[in-house]
Amino acid sequence: MTLRQEAYAMIDSLPDDESIRFFIDMIKRFNVVTKQMEQKEDIQSPLAEKRQAFLHMEELKKKYPFPKDYDYEQVRREAMEEKYGSVD
């Protein structure tokens, strides 16, 4: 017996029309949930790409760490002064 035949046999064994309606309603709900899950996966794939990029940056940061005495603020001040001149 194929899977389709088994499904038909199960539907045929239901006692009344109300049971068949319930069965059909359950299938419809299952289809809606399945479609929603597929849509979520489509939405999440750009996030997966961003996550991969972030993880790659973290690997590079471990591979090429900044020196211990690196002063972020000093570098920022120098870059601002170089670009915009003295603000004094």
Key structural traits:
88 residues; mainly alpha; rod-shaped
Summed up, what is this model?
With 88 residues, the chain is mainly alpha-helical. Helices cover 80% and strands 0% of the residues.
Structure description:
- The structure is a single chain.
- This protein is mainly alpha-helical and 88 residues long.
- Helix content is 80%, strand content 0%.
- The protein is built from 3 helices and no strands.
- The chain is rod-shaped, with a radius of gyration of 30 Å.
- The N and C termini lie far apart (87 Å).
- 0% of the residues are buried.
- The model has no long low-confidence stretch (mean pLDDT 83).
List the helices and strands and how they pair.
Elements: H1 3-12, H2 17-63, H3 72-84
Oligomer: single chain
The proportion of residues forming helix, as a percent range, comes to: over 70%
Principal-axes geometry comes out as rod-shaped
Indicate the low-confidence ranges by residue numbers: none
Number of helices: 3
Rg, nearest Å? 30 Å
Write the H/E string, N to C.
HHH
By DSSP, the count of extended strands is 0
Q: End-to-end distance, in Å? A: 87 Å
Largest sheet: none
